[in-house]
Write a structure and sequence with these properties.
Shape: globular
Strand content: under 5%
Number of strands: 0
Structural class: mainly alpha
Distance between the termini: 56 Å
Number of domains: 1
Radius of gyration: 18 Å
Length: 231
């Protein structure tokens, strides 16, 4: 049995540094990421952190890659589940925007980074293809969901108590939401609620691919809608 200390160490090495640095940057720096930064950083940082997590999973926790998807299932069912999760996420954001999110964002302009990114993507179809391809699927969806699942598995390895499991789902979802603070209070709340849905699904079915598919499709749809508005 893997000691609880190893799980804590895995979190301290594989999760906290990248998230902490990003959070520190958002809180202390006034300069926004450029369009190039938003394209390059997710791929470079995301890929590097994924490799780090895989190494920690193998050499520190001594688990196989299959530890990220221990539930039974087929790839085509995972894709179908991802489509269903995407529908749930879109319905959720629609309800949020029709209710409390409009009060959280009232009188506040959209993030300057988001505006600049959408303007840049709208003006350059090649950048849009790059963003909707490797950036969204690898640098955003794959990276964030690998981190989410790794974080959850480590926390659940520390304790299997039901209350701890529920707390872990909330903690991981809130942490992910806080890393999107550049989107304002509405972004934090929205990402946290979406994270609760994905984490709850993973707890029930233990499948990683549906989370990646749902995350990538949801972000792609949001980006396309923003770009259409900007255009």
């Amino acid at each position: 049995m893997i000691s609880k200390l190893r799980y804590l160490l895995a979190i301290c090495i594989g999760v906290l540094p990248a998230g902490g640095i990003l959070l520190w940057y958002r809180l202390t720096q006034t300069a926004n990421f450029t369009v190039s930064d938003m394209l390059v950083y997710p791929l470079v940082v995301g890929t590097g952190n994924i490799l780090l997590i895989l190494a920690l999973n193998k050499y520190l926790l001594r688990q196989k890659v299959g530890a990220f998807s221990t539930g039974k299932g087929k790839w085509y069912l995972d894709i179908l589940s991802g489509l269903v999760l995407t529908g749930i996420s879109l319905l959720l954001i629609y309800i949020e925007r029709a209710t409390f999110l409009r009060f959280l964002s009232q009188g506040k302009p959209p993030s300057r980074e988001i505006i600049d990114l959408m303007t840049g993507l709208a003006k350059n179809p090649l950048l849009l293809m790059l963003w909707l391809g490797p950036v969204v699927w690898i640098g955003v969806a794959l990276y964030e969901e690998v981190v989410r699942v790794f974080f959850l598995n480590c926390l659940w390895g520390i304790s299997g108590h039901r209350l701890w499991i529920y707390f872990s789902i909330f903690l991981v979802s809130l942490t992910t939401g806080l890393l999107h603070l550049y989107q304002g209070a509405s972004g934090i709340v929205s990402v946290t609620l979406q994270g609760l849905v994905l984490a709850a699904y993973y707890y029930k079915f233990r499948r990683l691919l549906p989370l990646i598919v749902s995350h990538a499709l949801y972000d792609s749809i949001q980006i396309i809608m923003f770009v259409m508005q900007v255009s």
